[in-house]
């Protein structure tokens, strides 16, 4: 359960029940102010309706607003069915990197909030209509309210970072938050300008964007570690996992019936998303690749989807020139590399890790 913290009060996100005695996330804060027009914040108790000012001492109390409205979009997406891969991943890493339970819960919360808020931003930026088989958050609450809610959630992660009581953890958090947004900027830039990056450029973007959350939670756990065992470098394992995770998503978006049910048929083509299969396809010069590029990047009214026939044409073109099969072959190789790296880490730590092995097996194509 994700918790948002405000001063000394907390509330679980996603729990629609009000706590006893009306206890909320927000607390009342006393502020010293004068009765002049200095811009002091005032409550609406005993207002003089003509002068619109408070004549009593209660006017010096500023009551924080309720957060049920600002949290509604966040609570919606957080409540959608999820495989919770990142939380399970943290539990697996915890076998190797022991962290005090309070710090572990804060790291889980930071990771989950960043993930959910990033999905809210992504769906707006990509004009996605579905998320996990349900309407995307902005389809129900509108883009403006969804953005406001996502930013509010993002701000609350700073409280969780503060709870870690570590300047190193704060540096790590800021560093990886910057990486996440820089990675996303490449993705958005390429799509808007119709630019096809190289495979190397694409992997760099993935390392920052998709790999960022995996790297963040591992680095935070290392910063708070109380393990007495060996301290091994997980950098290569995390890089491989982030790349595999993103490329698998690229492949499944085009080829998986489950993905079609959850997000729509070949949704990445609707979004003109730069994916590895598309890059492979564009590497083969010729009329067909120009046709595909023209279909994907021709300006369409905001939110308009590609007709089914066009998506089927693009998918068949990718299959015909080997882009889909090349992506699948890479995924199979990367999965083998991941397992090799994983077993080396098991040997180095001297601890079997059934949780992480279970994740890797479930991700296999």
Describe the structure.
With 365 residues, the protein is mainly alpha-helical. The protein has two domains: 3-69, no CATH class; 83-363, Orthogonal Bundle (Farnesyl Diphosphate Synthase), CATH 1.10.600. It has 15 helices and eight strands. It has helices at residues 68-78, 85-96, 101-125, 137-141, 143-163, 167-193, 199-223, 235-255, 257-263, 267-270, 276-283, 287-297, 308-320, 323-349, 354-363; strands at residues 3-6, 9-12, 28-30, 47-48, 53-54, 61-63, 130-131, 134-135. The strands form four sheets. A two-stranded antiparallel ribbon has the order 1-2. A two-stranded antiparallel sheet has the order 3-6. Strand 1 and strand 2 (9-12) form a beta hairpin. The model is unreliable at 5-45 (pLDDT under 50). This is Trans-Isoprenyl Diphosphate Synthases head-to-tail. GO terms for molecular function: lyase activity; metal ion binding; prenyltransferase activity. Residues 1-49 are annotated as: Disordered. Pathway: Secondary metabolite biosynthesis; terpenoid biosynthesis. Residues 12-29 have a biased composition (Basic and acidic residues).
């Amino acid at each position: 359960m994700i918790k948002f913290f405000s001063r000394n009060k907390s509330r679980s996100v996603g729990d629609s029940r009000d706590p006893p005695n009306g206890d909320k996330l927000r607390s009342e804060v006393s502020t010293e102010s004068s009765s002049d027009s200095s811009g002091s914040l005032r409550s609406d108790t005993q207002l003089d309706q003509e002068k619109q000012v408070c004549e009593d001492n209660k006017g010096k109390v500023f009551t924080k607003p309720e957060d049920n409205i600002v949290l509604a979009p966040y609570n919606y997406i957080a409540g959608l069915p999820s495989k919770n891969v990142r939380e399970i991943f943290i539990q697996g890493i915890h076998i190797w990197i022991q962290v005090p339970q309070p710090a572990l819960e804060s790291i889980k919360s930071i990771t989950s909030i960043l993930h959910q808020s990033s999905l809210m931003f992504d769906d707006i930026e990509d004009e996605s209509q579905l998320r996990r088989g349900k309407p995307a958050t902005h389809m129900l609450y509108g883009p403006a309210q969804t953005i406001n809610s996502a930013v509010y959630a993002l701000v609350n992660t700073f409280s969780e970072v503060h709870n870690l009581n570590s300047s190193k953890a704060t540096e790590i958090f800021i560093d990886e938050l910057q990486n996440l947004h820089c990675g996303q900027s490449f993705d958005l830039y390429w799509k808007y300008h119709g630019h096809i990056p190289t495979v190397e450029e694409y992997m760099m973007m993935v390392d920052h964007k998709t790999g960022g959350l995996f790297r963040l939670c591992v680095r935070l756990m290392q910063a708070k570690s109380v393990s007495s065992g060996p301290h091994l470098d997980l950098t290569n394992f995390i890089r491989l996992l982030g790349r595999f995770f993103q490329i698998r998503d690229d492949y499944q978006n085009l080829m998986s019936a489950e993905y079609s049910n959850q997000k729509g048929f070949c949704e990445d083509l609707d979004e003109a998303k730069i994916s590895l299969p598309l890059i492979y396809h564009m590497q083969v010069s010729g009329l067909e690749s120009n046709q595909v590029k023209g279909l994907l990047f021709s300006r369409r009214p905001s939110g308009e989807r590609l007709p089914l026939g066009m998506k089927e044409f693009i998918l068949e073109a990718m299959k015909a020139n080997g882009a889909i099969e090349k992506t699948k072959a890479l995924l199979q190789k990367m999965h083998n590399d991941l397992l090799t790296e994983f077993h080396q880490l098991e040997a180095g730590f001297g601890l079997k890790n059934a949780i992480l092995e279970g994740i890797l097996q479930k991700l296999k194509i």
